[in-house]
Design goal:
Helix content is 23%, strand content 18%. By secondary structure, it is α+β, with helices and mostly antiparallel strands. A 3-stranded antiparallel β-sheet has the order 1-2-3, with no helix packed on it.
Length: 97
């Protein structure tokens, strides 16, 4: 994941069930508010008291037996894109790490 979001200096992570959330572990004044992450991450069921700042990424959890991380399911990506379109927002580009 570090290669996918290299601008994050201190990488934090939280579980979202079978998915995983990646973010800058310390919100500092130089990080811009990430309102898109606020919407998407809240829709996935994870709320942050102050909102999200800086880059945020979602991946599936690593398989501990193989070390592989499967791609996000098409159904999840479609649900995120539909959610954004309903709010008049354009879906972000997908990047597989």
């Amino acid at each position: 994941m570090r290669a996918a979001i290299p601008e994050v200096r201190i990488l934090g992570t939280s579980t979202l069930g079978v998915a995983r959330l990646w973010y800058h572990d310390f919100f500092t004044p130089d990080l811009p508010r990430n309102q898109l992450a606020d919407l998407i991450v809240a829709e996935l069921g994870y709320h942050h008291a102050t909102g999200w700042y800086g880059p945020v990424a979602v991946s599936m959890d690593e398989n501990p037996a193989t070390g592989e991380v499967p791609p996000l399911p098409r159904e999840l990506m479609a649900a995120i894109h539909d959610f954004l379109r309903q709010r008049g927002l354009r879906p972000p580009p997908s990047r597989q790490a």
